Amino acid sequence: MKIKLRNLELQDKLYFFDWIRDEEVIRYSLSIFQKMKTDEDISNWFDKLLVDKTTYNQAIVDSESDALIGYAGICNLSKTNLSGEYFIFIGDKSYHGKGVGTLVTKEITRNGFEKLGLNRIMLTASEKNIGAIKAYTKANFKYEGAMRQAFYRDGEFHDKIIMGIIKEEWSN
Fold it and tell me: How far apart are CA 52 and CA 2, in angstroms?
């Protein structure tokens, strides 16, 4: 499977309507996805995403079919601290568990260090999101701690795992 990254485009919005309404797809995703219920909510969120200069956003595309399968990037970019927070959202369930998360995490991390000049990239993940934690570990992110009961899904609290990588630990 070949994956490529590119800038998000306005026509990519169409994919998100179905993805954000799929409880299985958004289970471990951004809390804001849990609140968006209408087309207008999703449309307004996406429009803001396209013009947000504090976030590095990339579309995740299947190179062979040219289909959008998700997006990833680095938010909360700090020019002062040369840091940011990694995120990934694979909306097309047929790509879950196929190594896409690891590939994309490595590529976005490389861009964070090489193109954005960052020194540190962190992330958080629900302790229940085992696949994501495996992908992040394979991309050289290190466990840094946990925020106890910081994640609430399916009527239960879960710990939110904190992971990070610094430039000197990173290797192509």
Answer: 28
Task: Answer yes or no: are the C-beta atoms of 86 and 108 closer than 8 Å.
Answer: yes
Q: What is the mean pLDDT of residues 88-111?
A: 94
Domain ranges of the chain: 3-169
Indicate the fold that domain 3-169 takes in CATH.
Answer: Aminopeptidase (3.40.630)
The residues, any chain, with a CB within 8 Å of residue 16's CB and separated by 6 or more, are 42, 46, 91
Query: Cα–Cα distance between 84 and 56 in angstroms, integer?
Result: 9
- Report pLDDT digits (tens) over 33-82: 878 889 999 999 999 999 998 899 999 999 999 999 999 999 999 999 99
